[in-house]
């Protein structure tokens, strides 16, 4: 009897192994051996686990306690919440009601957004912030990295200073820049005053405020770009510098033609992270005014979403704005993750 | 300790849509206490085979059994196998003592004091008692090697697996460890599978050697059998330094005709060929005698091209005088270090018929090997 | 092996740097280089320095001295610091109350997750998508989960009611928000912590792990006895990074604790409204508050700058 089951077990395990090699895409196909061998000797759990191990790899079952619970927790809070949020955005949930009414779903909130000039402004501002902030920060970060990488003395000190703002909270840096941009006593107006310009109302002027904020954010995050570029520069072999020198290229030309093209990977990963930071600039704008309403001309989707939901209690409308913001994030990170996956970096 | 049985073991790796057969239907039976050396060029599948025995790679088809129990689906941690890695793979945060006791703590229920005693004994056996409280980073390469060995020995496993354990040592230490390992294995009597690409290790250490190429088993025999009676041209070529001379020849009327020479063979040799006429002629460099004058049909006039003095012997590159300029005309011979030959000398190379090998040109299979009656014993006496 | 680090600083690079300089040998360029470096250092330090000197000025000194100049002895006061500390010290305590546990838990969980998805032997074709799903979580704008998060904590879990026995002991029920913050930060911290540990575990010697498995250790024991003891340097990086992130975050505290007047209000929440309540803005108070609130992260940054740089660069 036992012998029969042993043979059956081997027959089944061999067939499933053949299947494994025959299917190069590794797709999940229901495994015949699980159902067919329901009468065999080992208990159903062992059989299931050995079948799973054979499909996924020998340590699969043993490894699940390590990653599955955190995975589920994270999936619930991130992906579960996004799907829930999408659902809420289709309701007309607002005010002090305890829960949304899911019985009547429509796209009204998205239509409302398109008709809301405040939303369009916020979307445009978000886009400008995203692009201008990322480009400016990368440029400054690259210059810093090149300066620091030129074999300077006190390298660590300079690096520490440049990265210092990154360690501070948006709430804290907002206070600093509020003071920097102060109309009467701010350093920025003092400096341009030396050249006979200004004073300018940096945070009060609708046409300027967004750029003032981009500048402040650039101050905070260019140190991050520097760190990423520095790692990229250090990965370039010294021979490349030497070869360029021997070829008679000027320093500027060497960087432009030889070094910077090799920093593509660093640029892409830094850009993605910076764009994500930019989308989270809510904290900074909130702290600037101490409330949900950013200075006129500086409203972005992140602030508008929170304001609609938590100040105006337009929960469903806020959720719809959040979905738009999420879609923007996805359009940036989706291609990035595919790129990293292709390069086997995950 | 137990016999280890491999039955048409195959490993297929998927690379995109390509299948790579790293190990292809290898069968072997390894006796209790035997020292088996697996050898082959890099990429021949020898490490994959070892890792399958260890349970670190799944087996695509075929079975591996240990003491008559199929262990295909047994996890590595339950196989009672110890392995010595090329990189030694010591645990960097543990002292030598902790490195060596780790396996016993994890795989047995022995009480601590007994484990410590076993560790101390093994440390003495290997002469590393004074290192037991050091961290691996404080040890030299040779000492780390010993610790890795000790970690395997102290567990007293059913099987030792060794994956090129000596390749990170310098030449002198390697030679010393080679003999020491053999002595240890002899004393302990644990079945051992030893993977190497170094043919000196293969020839000197193993009771038997397993020769792999392209994932396929070429031959499994004692070292001397593999050397003198290779199963095919690959084995003949792989073992021996400098390697065997090969010439394409065709059998016509009892004479082997090549581009550079003609070599008559007697009826007994011809009978071995079973009618195959497209052949490869093989002769080991050390079997070629250099003489002054051509006496019979197996003596060939040659011109010395290059002489490489090695001290104890010379490697001499000869060209058949009759066929200078042909592609296939170089003959490598070894002579003792005192034979004086210089470039451009004309010498006679004698190729004795009892030392020649003949292979089927199409399959590479050995059809006729050198006769051993008298000289294998002479070699064994060495 | 245990002190293997991802190289972000340049002890090895100074050689190449010198080499590069030797090739050029231009002192004029060097001068320009250091001038540029100092100017940039000024750019990064001025807002901070200006804030620091402002925080110790009296109202009149603020109007009369340059914003970056230190106050004269007449214009010096610690009064604003006193006020700021009084206002924020409760918030500091509250922040520590969730930031410390959330940091420790998310680092531990990240280590376990990264281990489970890196070291054990199972098929990459299944592991890779799981990792991609987890790592994508780093880039999610939190706005996309806020409304459901509020729903989840206020309508579904309702810690305020479940923990009534705690409130009966005299703890204000606002502290339910602290527990919510811990769990929320852990959940959203898993992706980055997993990524950081994964880059580290990928570089552990494969043969060492295999050797431990052959020595008879189960996956759990391999983690406990081999991988965890070797994770020290990465734990430093992750703990520092995560602490800074959690301490500095405003959005979740705003949504989960909601008001700065709450007894459970974290320091960032109080700081955001500090100095605006009176007529006009009290900049000295704001600056003092900003520095006080930034003290823990500044201390961490100054003492563990390298680990911080490593964390952000990953």
TrEMBL record, chain A:
Transmembrane segments: 66-87, 127-148, 160-180, 208-231, 263-282, 315-339
UniProt keyword annotations, A-Z: Cell membrane, Membrane, Transmembrane, Transmembrane helix, Transport
Gene Ontology BP terms: transmembrane transport
PROSITE patterns to which the protein is assigned, alphabetical: ABC_TM1 (PS50928)
Recorded superkingdom: Archaea
Gene Ontology CC annotations of this record: plasma membrane
Cited SUPFAM superfamilies: MetI-like
Localisation per UniProt entry: Cell membrane
Record Gene3D superfamilies: MetI-like
Span list, region Disordered: 16-44
Family: Belongs to the binding-protein-dependent transport system permease family.
Annotated protein name in UniProt: Glucose/mannose transport system permease protein
Organism from which the protein derives: Halobellus clavatus
Automatic annotation (TrEMBL), chain B:
Compartmental location: Cell membrane
Residue ranges annotated for the ABC transporter domain, each copy included: 4-239
Signal sequence region: none
Domain of life: Archaea
Membrane protein topology class: Peripheral membrane protein
Membrane-spanning segments: none
Keyword Oxidoreductase belongs to the record: no
GO molecular function: ABC-type transporter activity; ATP binding; ATP hydrolysis activity
Chief location category: membrane
Keywords: ATP-binding, Cell membrane, Membrane, Nucleotide-binding, Sugar transport, Translocase, Transport
The protein's Enzyme Commission number: 7.5.2.13
GO cellular component, one term: ATP-binding cassette (ABC) transporter complex, substrate-binding subunit-containing
Known catalytic reactions: L-arabinose(out) + ATP + H2O = L-arabinose(in) + ADP + phosphate + H(+); D-xylose(out) + ATP + H2O = D-xylose(in) + ADP + phosphate + H(+)
One BP annotation, GO: carbohydrate transport
Subunit structure: The complex is composed of two ATP-binding proteins (XacJ and XacK), two transmembrane proteins (XacH and XacI) and a solute-binding protein (XacG).
Role summary: Part of the ABC transporter complex XacGHIJK involved in the uptake of xylose and arabinose. Responsible for energy coupling to the transport system.
PANTHER family: MALTODEXTRIN IMPORT ATP-BINDING PROTEIN MSMX (PTHR43875), TREHALOSE IMPORT ATP-BINDING PROTEIN SUGC (PTHR43875:SF15)
Family: Belongs to the ABC transporter superfamily. Carbohydrate uptake transporter-1 (CUT1) (TC 3.A.1.1) family.
Listed name of the protein: ABC-type D-xylose/L-arabinose transporter
Organism: Halobellus clavatus
Organism classification: Archaea, Methanobacteriati, Methanobacteriota, Stenosarchaea group, Halobacteria
From TrEMBL, chain C:
Compartments, record wording: Cell membrane; Membrane
GO biological process per UniProt: transmembrane transport
InterPro entries in the cross-refs: MetI-like, MetI-like_sf
Regions crossing the membrane: 26-46, 96-118, 130-155, 175-201, 222-244, 250-271, 283-304
Record keyword Transport present: yes
UniProt key word Transmembrane: yes
Membrane topology per record: Multi-pass membrane protein
GO cellular component: plasma membrane
Keywords in alphabetical order: Membrane, Transmembrane, Transmembrane helix, Transport
Organism domain of life: Archaea
Positions of the ABC transmembrane type-1 domain: 92-304
Name of the protein in question: Glucose/mannose transport system permease protein
């Amino acid at each position: 009897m036992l012998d029969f089951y042993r043979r059956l077990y081997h027959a089944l395990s061999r067939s499933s192994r053949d299947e494994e090699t025959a299917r190069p895409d590794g797709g999940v196909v229901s495994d015949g051996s699980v159902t067919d061998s329901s009468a065999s000797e080992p208990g159903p759990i062992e059989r299931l686990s050995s079948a799973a191990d054979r499909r996924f790899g020998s340590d699969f079952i043993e490894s699940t306690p390590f990653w599955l619970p955190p995975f589920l927790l994270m999936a619930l809070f991130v992906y579960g919440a996004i799907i829930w949020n999408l659902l809420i955005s289709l309701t007309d949930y607002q005010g002090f009601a305890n829960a949304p009414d899911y019985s009547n779903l429509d796209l009204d909130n998205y239509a409302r957004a398109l008709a809301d000039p405040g939303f369009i402004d916020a979307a445009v501002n978000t886009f400008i912030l995203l692009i201008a902030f990322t480009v400016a920060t990368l440029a400054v970060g690259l210059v810093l990295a090149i300066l620091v990488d030129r074999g300077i003395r006190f390298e660590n000190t300079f690096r520490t200073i440049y990265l210092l703002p990154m360690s501070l909270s948006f709430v804290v840096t907002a206070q600093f820049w509020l003071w920097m941009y102060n109309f009467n006593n701010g350093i920025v107006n003092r400096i341009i005053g030396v050249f006979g310009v200004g004073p300018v109302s940096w945070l009060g002027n609708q046409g300027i405020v967004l750029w003032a904020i981009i500048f402040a954010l650039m101050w905070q995050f260019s140190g991050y770009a520097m760190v990423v570029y520095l790692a990229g520069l250090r990965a370039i072999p010294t021979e490349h510098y030497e070869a360029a020198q021997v070829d008679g290229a000027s320093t500027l030309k060497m960087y432009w033609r030889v070094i910077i093209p090799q920093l593509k990977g660093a640029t892409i990963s830094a850009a993605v992270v910076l764009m994500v930071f930019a989308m989270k600039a809510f904290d900074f704008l909130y702290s600037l005014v101490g409330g949900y309403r950013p200075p006129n001309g500086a409203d972005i989707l992140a602030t508008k979403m929170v304001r609609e939901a938590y100040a105006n209690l337009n929960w469903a409308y806020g959720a719809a704005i959040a979905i738009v913001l999420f879609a923007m994030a996805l359009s940036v990170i989706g291609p990035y993750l595919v790129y990293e996956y292709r390069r086997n970096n995950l | 300790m137990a016999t280890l049985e491999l039955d048409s073991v195959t490993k297929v790796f998927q690379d995109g849509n390509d299948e790579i057969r790293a190990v292809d239907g290898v069968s072997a039976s390894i006796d209790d206490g035997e020292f088996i050396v697996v050898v082959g060029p890099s990429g021949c599948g020898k490490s994959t085979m070892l890792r399958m025995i260890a349970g670190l790679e799944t087996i695509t088809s075929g079975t591996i059994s240990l003491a008559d129990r199929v262990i295909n689906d047994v996890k590595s941690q339950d196989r009672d196998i110890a392995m010595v890695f090329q990189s030694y793979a010591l645990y960097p945060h543990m002292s030598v003592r902790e490195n060596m006791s780790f396996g016993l703590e994890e795989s047995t229920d022995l009480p601590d004091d007994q484990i410590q005693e076993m560790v101390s004994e093994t440390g003495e056996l290997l002469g590393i008692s004074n290192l037991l409280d050091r961290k691996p980073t404080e040890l030299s390469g040779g000492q780390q090697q010993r610790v890795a060995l000790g970690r395997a020995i102290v567990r007293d496993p059913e099987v030792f697996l060794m994956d090129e354990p000596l390749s990170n040592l310098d030449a002198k230490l390697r030679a010393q460890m080679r003999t020491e390992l053999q002595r240890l294995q002899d004393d302990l009597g644990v079945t051992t599978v030893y993977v190497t690409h170094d043919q000196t290790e293969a020839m000197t250490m193993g009771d038997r050697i397993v020769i792999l190429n392209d994932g396929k088993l070429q031959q499994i025999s004692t070292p001397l059998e593999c050397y003198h009676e290779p199963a095919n041209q690959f084995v003949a070529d792989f073992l021996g330094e400098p390697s065997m001379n090969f010439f394409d020849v065709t059998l016509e009327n009892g004479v082997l005709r090549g581009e550079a020479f003609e070599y008559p063979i007697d009826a007994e040799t011809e009978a071995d060929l079973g009618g195959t006429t497209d052949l490869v002629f093989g002769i080991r460099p050390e079997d070629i005698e250099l003489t002054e004058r051509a006496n019979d049909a197996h003596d060939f006039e040659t011109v010395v091209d290059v002489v490489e003095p090695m001290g104890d012997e010379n490697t001499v590159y000869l060209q058949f005088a009759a066929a200078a300029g042909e592609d296939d005309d170089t003959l490598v011979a070894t002579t003792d270090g005192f034979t004086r030959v210089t470039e451009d000398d004309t010498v006679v190379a004698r190729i004795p018929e009892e030392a020649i090998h003949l292979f089927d040109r199409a399959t590479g299979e050995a059809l006729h090997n050198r006769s051993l009656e008298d000289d294998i014993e002479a070699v064994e006496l060495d | 092996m245990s002190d293997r680090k991802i190289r972000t600083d340049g002890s090895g690079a100074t050689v190449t740097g010198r080499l590069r300089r030797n090739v050029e040998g231009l002192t004029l360029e060097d001068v320009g280089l250091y001038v540029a470096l100092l100017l940039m250092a000024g750019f990064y330090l001025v807002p901070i320095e200006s804030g620091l000197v402002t925080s110790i000025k009296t109202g009149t000194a603020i109007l009369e001295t340059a914003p970056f100049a230190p106050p004269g002895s007449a214009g010096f006061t610690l009064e604003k610091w006193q006020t700021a500390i009084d206002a924020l010290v409760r918030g500091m305590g509250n922040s520590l109350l969730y930031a410390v546990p959330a940091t420790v838990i998310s680092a531990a969980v990240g280590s376990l997750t990264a281990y489970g998805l890196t070291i054990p032997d199972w098929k990459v074709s299944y592991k890779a998508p799981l990792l991609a799903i987890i790592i994508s979580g780093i880039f999610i704008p939190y706005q996309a989960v806020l409304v459901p998060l509020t729903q989840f904590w206020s309508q579904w879990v309702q810690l305020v009611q479940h923990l009534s026995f705690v409130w009966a002991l005299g703890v204000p029920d606002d502290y339910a928000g602290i527990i919510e913050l811990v769990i929320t930060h852990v959940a959203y911290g898993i992706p980055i912590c997993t990524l950081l540990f994964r880059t580290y575990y990928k570089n552990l010697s494969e043969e060492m792990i295999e050797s431990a498995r052959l020595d008879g250790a189960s996956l759990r024991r391999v983690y406990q006895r081999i991988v965890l003891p070797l994770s020290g340097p990465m734990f430093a990086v992750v703990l520092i990074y995560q602490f800074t992130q959690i301490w500095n975050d405003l959005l979740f505290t705003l949504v989960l604790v909601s008001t700065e007047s709450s007894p459970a209000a974290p320091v960032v929440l109080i700081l955001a409204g500090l100095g605006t309540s009176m007529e006009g803005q009290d900049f000295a108070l704001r600056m003092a508050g900003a520095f006080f609130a930034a003290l823990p992260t500044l201390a961490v940054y100054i003492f563990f700058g390298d680990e911080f740089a490593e964390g952000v660069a990953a």
